């Protein structure tokens, strides 16, 4: 049986040469943030143009799910007649921060897009059962791994369950961390308001 593992893009990576950094795009940045009740190390890429645009307008993270649902109903950069929106949607448009949309000539045009893309979330855990549960909270949003201090005696059970739930396994110290099982490639079935809100929450932490 092959000892090769695969990164989140399906590329084969030999464990002897596999580092966590090999599992994500080379240009990814790293940060540790608090998400879903866990200190989480994330690999992410930022949309520099969107960040600069928001900075110019003094806009931070957009943390209203209601606003994000409205924005998702508007095409990016395409004017939509305000009168075609429901009364509730028109009211929400008026409440959006300046720079999120452009309103002109009785049309509304969406400007805002998601500011970051999270490539991987790594959750430290003292034991694998806790790691499975906590890493599982990120399932709708990104590839994920649990980071254990060492492999347990029931490692075969751990690897079976981690594979079942699509969670990678990392063990060891920060200096000698070893990828035991790479996470499967994350496939986004559709972009939802919840998914956009997740990236905005990450963006808020990064700021």
CATH class of the largest domain equals Alpha Beta
Question: Order of strands across the widest beta sheet?
Answer: 3-4-8-9-10-11
Q: Structural class, from secondary structure content?
A: alpha+beta
The level of helicity is 25-40%
CATH third-level topology of the largest domain: Rossmann fold
Radius of gyration: 20 Å
Q: Which spans of ≥5 residues are poorly predicted at pLDDT below 50?
A: 1-9, 13-17
Number of helices: 6
- Percentage of residues in strands: 25-35%
- Overall, the morphology is elongated
Distance between the termini: 45 Å
Can you tell me about this structure?
With 207 residues, the protein is an alpha+beta fold. It folds into 2 domains: 5-46 and 116-190, Rossmann fold (3-Layer(aba) Sandwich), CATH 3.40.50; 49-110, no CATH class. It contains 6 helices and 11 strands. It has helices at 48-57, 65-72, 87-95, 128-136, 155-165, 193-206; strands at 5-6, 12-13, 29-35, 38-46, 80-81, 101-104, 107-110, 116-124, 143-148, 168-171, 178-181. Helix 4 (128-136) packs parallel to helix 5. The longest helix is centred in the C-terminal third of the chain and has 14 residues, at 193-206. It is elongated and about 65 Å long. The termini are far apart.
In terms of topology, how is this protein built?
Blueprint: E1 5-6, E2 12-13, E3 29-35, E4 38-46, H1 48-57, H2 65-72, E5 80-81, H3 87-95, E6 101-104, E7 107-110, E8 116-124, H4 128-136, E9 143-148, H5 155-165, E10 168-171, E11 178-181, H6 193-206
Parallel strand pairs: 8-9, 9-10
Antiparallel strand pairs: 1-2, 3-4, 4-8, 5-7, 6-7, 10-11
């Amino acid at each position: 049986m092959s000892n090769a593992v695969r990164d989140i893009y399906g590329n084969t990576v030999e464990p002897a040469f596999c580092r966590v950094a090999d599992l994500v795009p080379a240009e990814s940045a790293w940060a540790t943030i608090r998400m879903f009740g866990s200190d989480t190390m994330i690999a992410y890429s930022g949309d520099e143009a969107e960040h600069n645009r928001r900075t110019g307008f003094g806009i931070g993270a957009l943390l209203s799910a209601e606003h994000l649902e409205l924005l998702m109903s508007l095409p990016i950069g395409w004017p939509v007649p305000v009168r075609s929106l429901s009364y509730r949607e028109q009211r929400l448009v008026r409440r959006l921060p300046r720079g999120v949309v452009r309103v002109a000539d009785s049309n509304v045009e969406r400007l805002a897009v998601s500011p970051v893309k999270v490539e991987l979330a790594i959750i430290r855990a003292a034991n694998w059962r806790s790691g499975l549960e906590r890493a599982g909270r990120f399932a709708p949003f990104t590839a994920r791994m649990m980071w254990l201090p060492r492999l347990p005696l029931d490692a075969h059970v751990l690897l079976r369950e981690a594979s079942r739930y699509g969670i990678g396994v990392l063990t060891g110290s920060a200096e000698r961390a070893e990828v035991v099982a790479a996470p499967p490639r994350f496939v986004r079935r559709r972009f939802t308001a919840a998914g956009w809100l997740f990236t905005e929450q990450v963006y808020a932490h990064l700021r």
